[in-house]
Specification:
alpha+beta, 2 domains, six-stranded antiparallel β-sheet, two-stranded antiparallel sheet, 17% strand, disordered N terminus, disordered C terminus, ATP binding, nucleotide-binding, Kinase-like_dom_sf, ATP-binding
Length: 298
């Protein structure tokens, strides 16, 4: 639900010199920014405006510049496009494509879980975008349902590249960042990592879409970390017995504790679940496979 802001106070305080836009409505807030939907006076289109409040931290300008440069280099239907950017007296503004249907997390909270057919459609869009980014050396590093938006046509789009980083083909990163319950185990252990951490996060998202629950949801952060590092997946029968074995296989390949054995985005697109354009959803899980699930769960 969008929240209209007070035009006489909040608009002038928050938007500063952002005079090309009107009727701002609050969408969401994060660690260092607030996002508003506002109409461009010239063309009548609605955009999402990310307002980043200036911080005394010396690294902030570099982080903003990095996000802008990465977004400018991306042109993909499943990644939110950057329309414009500029600085005001107190904020830096990123004017981006507006996704009318909100984010994936909000939708999942209402739907609880998706049908396998719809989850596959979302997964295809998501993995195509990841493959595009990874081929260009871009690692998102904070992939989660809140950062996946849905436009008016139902297409999903990856957003929020505030933590993204560009690396060379054989390069590695070592900064501890992201959201705990979507972090790959190599980040938690302090090891160097690459784009495979995004595949892990995407695997978690697919698991949630298909089952309606998080595979590593613990009572506290310490328990979550322990579960993530173990990599043990529990396929509770009531949630998984109507899901195809091909879908389950891909989830396992993406949520693999060993990054060297983990599927890449390119490999995921060629998997039995995603690679077959004529995939039949009548191929439900076999009774034998269902028995294996029940045995593993008990």
């Amino acid at each position: 639900m969008l929240r209209k802001i007070n035009m006489s106070e909040s608009f002038s305080d928050t938007f500063g010199s952002c005079r090309e836009y009107e009727s701002p409505e609050f969408i969401a807030s994060g660690r260092a920014a607030e996002v508003y939907a506002a109409r461009n006076i010239s063309n009548g289109k609605t955009y999402a405006i990310k307002c980043i409040k200036f911080s005394p931290k010396k690294c902030q300008p570099d982080l903003i510049k990095n996000e802008i440069n990465i977004l400018k280099s991306i042109n993909h239907p499943n990644v939110v496009a950057l329309h414009d950017n500029y600085a005001g007296p107190q904020h830096h503004y990123l004017v981006m494509e507006y996704a009318e249907n909100g984010d994936l997390m909000s939708d999942l909270q209402v739907q609880k879980r998706y049908t396998e057919k719809f989850a596959r459609t979302v997964t295809l869009d998501l993995v195509k975008a990841l493959n595009y980014c990874h081929q260009r050396g871009i690692v998102h590093r904070d992939l989660k349902p809140e950062n996946i938006l849905i436009d008016k046509l139902g297409r999903v789009k990856i957003s929020d590249f505030g933590m993204a980083k560009r690396i060379e083909k054989s390069g590695r990163l070592n900064t501890y960042c992201g959201t705990l319950i979507y972090m790959a185990p190599e980040i938690l252990s302090g090891a160097a990592y690459d784009s495979s951490i995004d595949v892990w996060s995407a695997g978690i998202i697919i698991f949630i879409m298909l089952s309606g629950y998080h595979p590593f949801h613990g009572k506290n952060d310490a328990e979550c970390e322990k579960m993530i590092q173990s990599g043990r997946l529990y396929f509770h029968p009531p949630s998984w017995e109507d899901i195809s074995s091909n879908a389950i296989t891909l989830v396992k390949e993406m949520i693999c504790p060993c990054p060297l054995q983990r599927s890449t985005a390119k490999e995921a697109l060629k998997s039995s679940w995603l690679g077959d354009k004529k995939y039949s959803f009548k191929k439900k899980i076999t009774s034998a496979y269902s028995n294996v699930l029940r045995k593993n769960w008990q």
